[in-house]
Amino acid sequence: AMLAQAVRDGAHGGICGGANLLPSLFTSLYDAALRADDAAVNELQSDVLTLAALYQIRPGADECIASLKGALSIVGICGPTPAEPFEPMDEHERKRVEEVLAMVERWLTDPHPVPESLAAPNAQRTTQ
């Protein structure tokens, strides 16, 4: 949740776990921070903070990995079983992850949902 501020402070990027799940959200945030487009940064940061709710589903510093793995599984990127020592999500945790994903669904259905009014002029977008 610190990517935009880090870029503003001179960083060249960040290591964002959520980018494994929604890479276009984080690249859009990075680009908006580079442009110093505060309106876009605020909108995108709101989605990043919504996504960060994944890390509250299973308490513990390392346990957030299991929630992220579960989200990746739900969207079809990988299987549901995390590496040891982590346990797979139970049904209640899975439903909570699905609720978080529903709140950021536009990033799952459209790889570049940033409104054109917030896009950089003359920006060229590439798809993965």
Please, could you describe this protein's structure?
With 128 residues, this protein is mostly helical. It is 48% helix and 0% strand. The chain has six helices and no strands. Helix 2 packs antiparallel against helix 3 and helix 4 packs across helix 5. The C terminus is likely disordered.
Describe this protein with a few key phrases.
128 residues, mainly alpha
**Total count of strands:** 0
Mean pLDDT rating: 84
Characterize the main sheet.
none
Series of secondary-structure elements, N-terminal to C-terminal: HHHHHH
Helix content: 40-55%
Number of H- or I-type helical stretches: 6
- Strand pairing plus helix content: what structural class? mainly alpha
In quaternary terms, these chains amount to single chain
Shape: elongated
Instruction: Provide the low-confidence segments as ranges.
Output: 123-128
Report strand %: under 5%
Radius of gyration: 15 Å
Distance between the termini: 23 Å
Can you describe this structure in just a few lines?
The chain is an all-alpha fold and 128 residues long. 48% of the residues lie in helices and 0% in strands.
Give the topology:
Blueprint lengths: L2 H6 L14 H12 L3 H14 L12 H11 L16 H13 L1 H5 L19
